[in-house]
Amino acid sequence: MGKRPSISKRFWISLILSLTLITVTGSDSFSQTKLEKAAGSHTFSIFWWEIRHVPLKWTHLLWEMFPGNKPDDNERIDIVRSYLQAVNRLDKEIMKLRKPHLSAGYTSAAADINVLSHVLENIKAYEREKESLRGRAEESVEAALSKTIIEEGLGLRYGILFPPTDFRFDEPPLILVTSPRDQIKLEASILINNNIDSNTRSSIERKVELDGRTSALIDNLAGLGTYPALVSDRYGLREITRTAAHEWLHNYWIFRPLGRSMWNSPEMYTLNETAANIAGNELGDRTFLKLGGDLSKSSHKYADVSVSRPHLSRILKQTRKEVDRLLSVNNIVDAEKLMRREHWNLKLGGYNIRKINQAYFAFRGNYADGPASTSQIGPELNEFRDYFKTLGEFIEAISKIDSYHHFKLQLDEKRDSTSTK
Predict the structure, then answer these.
(1) Among 132-146, 298-312, 340-354, whose mean pLDDT is lowest?
(2) Handedness of CA 48, 54, 56, 59 (dihedral sign)
(3) I want to staple 258 with a disulfide (CB 3.0 to 4.6 A). Which of 32, 209, 253, 315 is the partner?
């Protein structure tokens, strides 16, 4: 017999949602910035996204209250597998529409008309199948991740987890980021609707760059730390569980010094994002196993980028170092020539990076375990992680950090205590 979902989870969801709506309502009421003016109607509103999607989550919670509706672990594995199969089938049919002879619309050829009609029918059928499974698939990942988190000792008494895991499988918005041209520094960012084409992206970027002092980039996101967190379902189950864990960690740390200090300095922003990557990957992989995943499959893809894509890692790190050097002597022209040249070389090598500029390095460089960063925070965090026997202990220890200086002191203490043993 299925169990009724705990009142405590529904209470915590209500509390966090209230805090989220207060925050995003305020942010949406600000006067238009330069970025918002450039984006125009393409600006993404977290407030309206919450209004549209949170009721769907509550509908599923109510559905689970009835006996027999809550799946067991084996059923959850089957649900997630079926959902991802529906996602893949839907994506394949949508890709067919992009073929030149179909994307232009109906043609005079009867064969093309029949093919187009068949594709459109399939898309509608797979969309219905996907939507019928979405709520249960989300709950299945939430339950598996919650179990992993509680096993790491991060829950409250009586098995209560705060904040509860809560996700929405959907395509995240894009992000428009800027940096000054004369240095690599994340200056501003806003979210952009994900339904714009490449030409529109370029047009918005050009508008932002009209002042001659700004570098702009519209980049992709794999997830977004809203509540419920927004997680892309297009990159496979292991990527889903890693992203879901990453976003939950942001929601967990926002109630602790680490998350509350995230915007105090560039170093704290990088510390938050990199810690969420390191811990999120571990939590995500353990959750992946609970959902029937096999870590030995595609293991090379999920290895450190210096191992999985050494050519990409080497070029990006070398380029970043040289760009930093050129900008330090105010040689903007040569720095931008270098980035355009290396971007072209990477495209020739099969790496589909849309653009490399100051804004690219400013945004991607916040993830200090990635190839676009030259920060020591990545190696330092990996070292800090190694001092703890369990992942839960690392997550709790890093959650108490409120400045980069504080982190360095804690790291030095770990080093000293190890050397004296």
Answers:
(1) 298-312
(2) negative
(3) 253
